[in-house]
Amino acid sequence: MNKIAHWLCLAACLAAVTLRAAVDPLPSWNDGQTRQSILKFVAEVTTPGTSLFVPPAERIAVFDNDGTLWTEQPAYTQFYFVMDRVKAAAARHPEWNTQEPFKSALTGDIKGLLTSGVQGLVKLPGAACEGMTIEEYDRAAHDWLETTRHPRFARPYLECVYQPMLELLAFLRASGFKTYIVSGGSLEFMRPWTEKVYGVPPEQLIGSTVRNKMELRNGQPVIVRQAEVDLVNDKVEKVLSIQRVIGRRPILAFGNSDGDLPMLQWTAAGGGRRFCGYVRHTDGEREYAYARTAAVGRLDKGLDEAGARGWTVVDMKRDWKRVFPFEAAPAGR
Amino acid sequence: MNKIAHWLCLAACLAAVTLRAAVDPLPSWNDGQTRQSILKFVAEVTTPGTSLFVPPAERIAVFDNDGTLWTEQPAYTQFYFVMDRVKAAAARHPEWNTQEPFKSALTGDIKGLLTSGVQGLVKLPGAACEGMTIEEYDRAAHDWLETTRHPRFARPYLECVYQPMLELLAFLRASGFKTYIVSGGSLEFMRPWTEKVYGVPPEQLIGSTVRNKMELRNGQPVIVRQAEVDLVNDKVEKVLSIQRVIGRRPILAFGNSDGDLPMLQWTAAGGGRRFCGYVRHTDGEREYAYARTAAVGRLDKGLDEAGARGWTVVDMKRDWKRVFPFEAAPAGR
């Protein structure tokens, strides 16, 4: 009986694999070098019996979020959320009217905000949401994302994700990969929606964090956000947090800015076949065109290194049939 | 064809479930209230169509390690490893001959070590292994665990794990749970072996950490341990790290000391059915008998709270047919 169950399972799996192969896993990607480099890599590491084969447990894929999986222009989505939270909390903080970066946040001055630099900006999410329980924060983020629209695309932010990258995430998972997001954005800001939108569950997210504390409210333990920043998950910190949370070196890494470069270098330095990819924003018409001198999402050193080392650089304009899910679906290949 | 594959898969799964139900999942547990409380809980949360049903993605189970999954007496296993590492590094640190906790570590004085308190003890793993890459540390821990034996049981430490808890971990996973270890011990000290011994992969481990840094050695990026302690993952920190790494509240938590109490309280405070368990060390003959006044693994407040709230308290002597895998297997039920 046990053997029969085993045989039935094998037959079902083989049937499923055969059926899957007939369907194009990346319909929104134009055929060309970029798409082929992805298909080739996945075929290489998933074909049993070859020297390049990687067991499923070690098929770790890491993705940056802002600018890699969803749009980060004219500024990070989380900026807009935090600015609204700063406004909501401003009555309790009259000093914010004169202190940066709060002053710029209150007047909606993105340029002013950006001049505060990372060390200034990271103060905002902590200060704006201090004292909220994780459930309150989760609900606030969720409600905001449901009701607020991108200033240019006039769509909810959760629709401003890249359709080709959704397909890539799903294709990797169908090929036995475990997909992680490793973002400089706030961990708790991603938690309410990445499973629904990207298929990435809460335990496969790594992001920036504020210090939390546990306290009793109405006799029940709750986790409460504090103002103090715990981790700015950017650059080398991305590598260290991957080691801390996952404990395995990724075999595929995708980013779009210099902040992702150490993560790609760390991925590339492992043995066997590795895939390092950069999304390059070349499409000012359908999305945005920016790279080497951008204030948000600068890709300069990373582009040089990608060229020197033969990493895959996705040219949005050339490689993607459509950018967002709300565009018309492309005709079948 | 798709329908046939689907039908074959269903048939195979049903056959597998039927086969599994006939096998006792907890053969090393004496039948009684403790074993029944586990079986009842798992049946309740995994039976579809009831109000207590929990979807597989939310079946998060967290386990302390030292004293819950393996023996922690006469002192934490990691202590012995770290003492050996302190000796190995002592030539570079003549000041350790007079400074605590290094002095006690060098003379193998466990009592002296314990008087340093947590704040003293946590200095050791960082200082002793400063400058090692994660691969070097991994190999050192692995080699040490292969060659060093428990002072009383004269077995390699990796055999001094609790057979009934191995069965519980496997039973939970077979019931769709995701099992995590949330330990006060060092994260990197667990990484080399928990998958092999407990079936818990590297990405389902949470533990204490030192700061790492990334640097270039021979042109390759490596992650290097520093002396500075980053996180002592005990008490409330266990709750905060569960939120940070998993992002879901567990529905089952198992510990053995007061350091696990906040984790159990946090688990208990969620909605629906929850399981909180304490392993109580009552068997001085087969293992150790200790609880309320122990220097290592004190269980005092936790025992009171377990009594008041009706949590499951495993009485090792009464509830376990055998403690370690190296004991003779019990006869079938």
Molecular structure report:
2 copies of one chain form a homodimer. Chain A has a single domain (2-319), classed as Rossmann fold (3-Layer(aba) Sandwich). In chain A, strand 6 (275-282) and strand 7 (289-290) form a beta hairpin. Helices cover 40% and strands 17% of the residues of chain A. The first copy, chain A, contains 15 helices and 8 strands. Chain A has helices at 2-21, 33-46, 77-89, 102-106, 110-114, 117-121, 123-128, 134-147, 163-174, 187-190, 194-198, 236-245, 261-268, 301-309, 316-319; strands at residues 60-63, 178-186, 205-217, 220-231, 252-255, 275-282, 289-290, 312-315. By secondary structure, chain A is an alpha/beta fold. In chain A, strands 1, 2, 3, 4, 5, 6, 7 and 8 form an 8-stranded mixed beta sheet that branches. At the A-B interface, helix 1, strand 3, strand 4, helix 12 and helix 13 of A face helix 1, strand 3, strand 4, helix 12 and helix 13 of B.
Tally of distinct domains of chain A: 1
Low-confidence blocks of residues of chain A: 12-19
- The average pLDDT score of chain A comes to 92
**CATH structural class of chain A:** Alpha Beta
Q: Major β-sheet of chain A, in short?
A: 8 strands, mixed
Biggest interface goes to:
A-B, 42 and 42 residues
Sketch the topology of chain A as an H/E string, one letter per element.
HHEHHHHHHHEHHEEHEHEEHEH
Q: Assign the structural class of chain A, choosing from mainly alpha, mainly beta, alpha/beta, alpha+beta, or little secondary structure.
A: alpha/beta
Query: Helix tally of chain A?
Result: 15
- Which oligomeric state applies? homodimer
Strand content of chain A: 15-25%
C-alpha-based Rg of chain A, rounded: 21 Å
* Amino-to-carboxy terminus distance of chain A: 44 Å
Q: Percentage of helical residues of chain A?
A: 40-55%
* Rough outline of chain A: globular
What name does CATH use for the topology of chain A?
Rossmann fold
